[in-house]
Amino acid sequence: MGHMGFHWLDDGKQYVYVQIPATMQAPTVADMSIADEHIVVETKTRISTICEDLSKNPSHAILVKKGDDILGIVTARDIFTSMAAGINATKVKVEKIMRTDIMTIAADTPLSDALEMLSSKKPDAIIIVGPSFEFVGYFSAQDYREATRKLETHQVMSARLNRSRKAISKKAVQVEEETDDDLLDLLLGDFEEEADEKDLPSINL
Length: 205
Description:
This protein is α/β, with parallel strands linked by helices. The protein contains 4 helices and 8 strands, in the order E-E-E-H-E-E-H-E-H-E-E-H. The longest helix is centred in the C-terminal third of the chain and has 59 residues, at 141-199.
């Protein structure tokens, strides 16, 4: 969370104490839906055993792991390509056709940094890891599109917040100046009345 700003506003009747965030929390990779759109299998898994899952969710990615590490990715397109090349999909294991250019990104990485990295690289898969480098999710093509929209929304909202803070700060200064002037007028007014009373000539009746 950012620091909080405190300002006095004049609502026409009384002073109102307003609390606003100094900054908006930048979205991170962990804010995306990274727990879906994938299936994790072992390297020795046969392609035939995952075809049923892919038939229900053809856009899902098959992430191939060994131990705790994600080594590769297989998609429906990879299976069709291997079959077109004459490979018997009922016998082949996923490790034989998986693609292995894997990019690892920490879950707390700001979306802006992640999108910048992805703009210069085209990995086969993007794996999200936690603080201990444990697997926590998969960053899909759909996540990329949603991340772009989320980042644009964040930038718009941040700009609006910044304008609001400036407007509130300006109003607060005006209120403080008006308050000081009113207090000064009150003090000077009493002083002038006292001075006028002292200058009045005495009248004997």
